[in-house]
Amino acid sequence: MFDKIIELIKQEYSGDQSVNLHQPHFGGNEKKYLLDTIDSGFVSSVGEYVNLFEDLLAKKLNVKHAIATVNGTAALHVSYLVAGVEPGDEVITQAMTFVATANSIKYCGAEPIFLDICRESLSLCPLKLESFLKNNTYTGSDGYCYNKVSQRRIKACVPMHTFGLPGHIDEIVEICAKYNLIVVEDAAESLMSQYKGHYTGTIAKLGVFSFNGNKIITTGGGGAIVTNCDKIAKLAKHLTTTAKINSGYESFHDEIGYNYRLPNLNAALGLAQLEQIDLFVEKKRSLATRYKKLFETMDAYNFVSEMDNTESNYWLNAVICRDFDSRQEFLRSLNQNKILVRPVWKLLNSLEIYKHCQTGDLSNAEDLQNRIVNIPSSVV
Ligand SMILES: Cc1ncc(COP(=O)(O)O)c(C=O)c1O
């Protein structure tokens, strides 16, 4: 039953060794740039590679500003702060996402509200979002959106483009505008994915990327905030660089900032990686096409494809199994053949740390959490 899948994966990742879910691919100037930073002595928070990395990232994404950070979680944290999230506020996100999306809400002293995903995009469902806002909120005299149950202000909304597949970001931005919510796109997984010709992360007011070792490009550890708004970019840069003000020979700090700037050493690696991103996307899309063709022949396993009007970077390919048992069979069989396949994250509202949080109707997420499996997706 699984022979054809195992054969295809072994063919793609040639050989008898175990196949990882995702590993980095170093095929460009990585060593050259890394040695260059060591020779220059600028390995830390100051150096030309950070600026070059930020400039190339902004250029590639066709966005005005990119601010590089130590990781994607730090980028999310600062994005929420510049979006104006304050202690006691609430922030809407999806129940099916990596834990960092919600943890960084808590770092701000705010509480997440978990809503459902769409079956087709696996990202935040605009219909469920609109219905939640319509039925559960009111507009306060200050013009902000308030939760009828908790009486707290809802300040922002964070859709996440799951596995690189762009969600319905246009509709989400439009709905949130009606309710005075700032949208932060968690595009950690979707670098260079497109929605109606625009890159994910650049459509809402703020977008966030991760360059962790398992992402489409890596800086070792790293992340970035992107925005077209000058004011937001200035504040984000300030907060990620310890809120430092240079004054003649001296410097001081005018608020509590964070030491979140990406080191030059990591940026050197990132620049070399970013130079290859078009090739990486091409290879990933081509692998996805082969997976799609194979899974078309199987009733119990559906390959997750991009929606119309979108182009996914297919960072991490996914299959929806018919039911829990067929998922278990899939996991067992491939892992026994040294092919690492993994079930999707547990829904965040089911974790002890988030059990107390408000949720909407989660019927899609609850059904899919027992059926989604990620399959090997490294660039080869
Ligand atoms: C959806 C999502 N958000 C945020 C993050 C956090 O990024 P990082 O690991 O770089 O902190 C990740 C990945 O790790 C992620 O997948």
Description:
It is a single chain. With 380 residues, the chain is an alpha+beta fold. The chain folds into 2 domains: 3-24 and 277-346, no CATH class; 30-276, 3-Layer(aba) Sandwich (Aspartate Aminotransferase, domain 2), CATH 3.40.640. Helix content is 36%, strand content 18%. The strands form 4 sheets. Strands 1, 2, 3, 4, 5, 6, 7, 10 and 11 form a 9-stranded mixed sheet that branches. A 4-stranded antiparallel sheet has the order 14-16-18-17. It starts with a helix and ends in a 6-residue tail after the last strand. It binds pyridoxal-5'-phosphate. The site of pyridoxal-5'-phosphate has 15 residues, from helix 4 and helix 5.
Strand content: 15-25%
CATH class of the largest domain: Alpha Beta
- Helix and strand run: HHHEHEHEHEEEHEEEEEHEEHHEEEHEHE
Helix count? 12
List the main descriptive attributes of the protein structure presented here:
single chain; 380 residues; alpha+beta; Aspartate Aminotransferase, domain 2; nine-stranded mixed β-sheet; four-stranded antiparallel β-sheet; globular; binds pyridoxal-5'-phosphate
Compact description:
With 380 residues, the protein is α+β, with helices and mostly antiparallel strands. It has helices spanning 3-12, 30-40, 48-61, 72-82, 99-107, 126-136, 169-178, 230-240, 264-274, 277-295, 324-336, 363-368, and strands spanning 65-69, 90-94, 111-115, 137-139, 145-147, 153-158, 182-186, 194-195, 198-199, 206-210, 223-227, 244-247, 250-253, 301-303, 310-311, 318-321, 342-343, 372-374. It is built from 12 helices and 18 strands.
